Fold this protein.
Amino acid sequence: MAKVAVLLAPGFEEAEAIITIDILRRLNIEVETLACDGSRAVVSYHHIPMVADHTLSDKIDTYYDAVVLPGGPQGSVNLAASAEVVRFVAAHDEAGKIIAPICSAAARVLGGNGLLKGRRYVCSGDLWQAVQDGVYVDAPVVEEGNLISGKGLGHAFDFALTLAARLLGDDAPVREHAEHIYYPW
């Protein structure tokens, strides 16, 4: 069974995180939420308190099949500023694991720390204009190698379903599930 880490920093975009977690778990993909600020308690962008499964510090040497980075104006800034997050993402990327940023996370976390490595990606707004090491593509979801990026909250279902299909290696159960939740994917 595939196993996914969802990194939660203070100010994370809760809907991007929860939609992704929900879709993956519905498709029997194991998900662990990892708080990136020393405590398992994390407050989201819209001030919703959540308790993560673990702290990133507790799981820093654990490898997952994918690492999800939700956006959020402050959440992505906090992720990008964390040496532990950068180390964790870089290690997973070097191991060929899926790196899955959504919204501002691709530009701020990956682009801001030299982790795009020339790959194609999408992010929210005009943040792409400050990125030097990637190739911006204006699309709901962009896949290149082990990088799957999503444009933002409005495309969170496309992002989560694409990630699930990649992790399962089969889009048939994902398409069936999309129909079940009345989502045209």
Summary: DSSP finds seven helices and eleven strands in the chain.
